[in-house]
């Protein structure tokens, strides 16, 4: 491959190994950059990801460049795997650049069990988890909440979970932002969104959301793995879900409000799905407050699921969660916009850092990193597919300079859900995983398994390799599925 390539009429110039730039031209307010190997770049260039990335550079106040991570693929307006930092004074905030599933994210919980402790109990474990943790489209949650409960969760985040017996103090101290966004403003969340939230507290949902019991197969950095409490053959649990219907409704509400409230800004953008509210406007303030409330809801949602998981393990292994040392390693958000201070051209600036399908990846020393990990860097959890495994990374030294402290969030899709259902048969995928890789999967339908078959995703090993090589997220450990439940 030469130093200049073209996909769908968009030209990229190689800046350095794994860094490709789209030159600022026309109405673009900044260049755009893609972090990818040649193989991943060819997959990223296969849909509308690059055009969406170029479109994102038209957002007011965008700083340095719009970024696509190595797992990038086409999304709603703004690419999944995208990062954009907009000035909080003369920039904007865009619901489309956050995503509909606000604070979709992952958390990993450690245990003191080894793989040998679980062998022979996989089916009992997967069946009990599936019975205990609600999943699927719509559906109920663990908690039958009322309006007062929902508003308390929106306001207090994981502090509510602690006060109501669903969390420990250590859970809060090992979560991004301590599991609480103080800027949350439930008064800016619609009644319809709150109604949807009442029924879904403690539920996985559908699509690519899952709970997976895993074993640690590889350690790459012994000192960091020790700080994270990880060792070979250890059993860990990975939970992936978000703010459910509540977050989706908030995004829908504010896209419509912004389209009506700021038509002049919308008219200047190449795609109405990027609808953005100018920084300092009433709608920008309202959306930020509502989004932060949804962030709090999502953290509680994952926390309640983790609480249920602790109870299932206690039942199956006849020991208390404390005796099993079922402790939160970390929880990271994937779809989020946060006010952060970053150094740009030698000057500190407050920015709305939009991460859509991207993970915060702060290095050692940054004050936002929990005290337990501040000397080694923030944990990053990158899920792969049901048949390939996942990774734990830590924030890399180059992340602040290259990517506003961000890296990839997963393997990234190479095939739509419709295509997947045409190519794969869910029951066959499930049976092959069990027979050939001893991975036990239970889902609400075969269609869900087909949509999430290992073949629909990019090579997570390659995604992580690029992150590590760039120094934005350093590889610490690898895990492999034992059993998986999904909606």
TrEMBL record:
Enzyme class label: ligase
Binding site for Mn(2+) 1: 101, 209
Active site per UniProt: 409 (gmp-histidine intermediate)
Bias (Basic and acidic residues): 177-199
InterPro entries with a match to the protein in the record: RtcB, RtcB-like_sf
Cofactor(s) listed: Mn(2+)
Cofactor descriptive note: Binds 2 manganese ions per subunit.
Highest taxon of the lineage: Archaea
Sequence positions that bind Mn(2+) 2: 240, 334
Region (Disordered): 177-201
E.C. code: 6.5.1.-
Keyword vocabulary terms for this entry: GTP-binding, Ligase, Manganese, Metal-binding, Nucleotide-binding
SUPFAM superfamilies: Hypothetical protein PH1602
Positions annotated to bind GMP: 208-212, 334-335, 383-386, 390, 409-412, 486
Molecular function terms, GO-annotated: GTP binding; metal ion binding; RNA ligase (ATP) activity; RNA ligase (GTP) activity
Catalytically driven reaction(s): a 3'-end 2',3'-cyclophospho-ribonucleotide-RNA + a 5'-end dephospho-ribonucleoside-RNA + GTP + H2O = a ribonucleotidyl-ribonucleotide-RNA + GMP + diphosphate + H(+); a 3'-end 3'-phospho-ribonucleotide-RNA + a 5'-end dephospho-ribonucleoside-RNA + GTP = a ribonucleotidyl-ribonucleotide-RNA + GMP + diphosphate
GO BP term, example: tRNA splicing, via endonucleolytic cleavage and ligation
Assigned protein family: Belongs to the RtcB family.
Functional note: Essential for tRNA splicing and maturation. Acts by directly joining spliced tRNA halves to mature-sized tRNAs. Joins RNA with 2',3'-cyclic-phosphate or 3'-phosphate ends to RNA with 5'-hydroxy ends.
Subunit-level organization: Monomer.
UniProt protein name: tRNA-splicing ligase RtcB
Protein encoded by which gene: rtcB
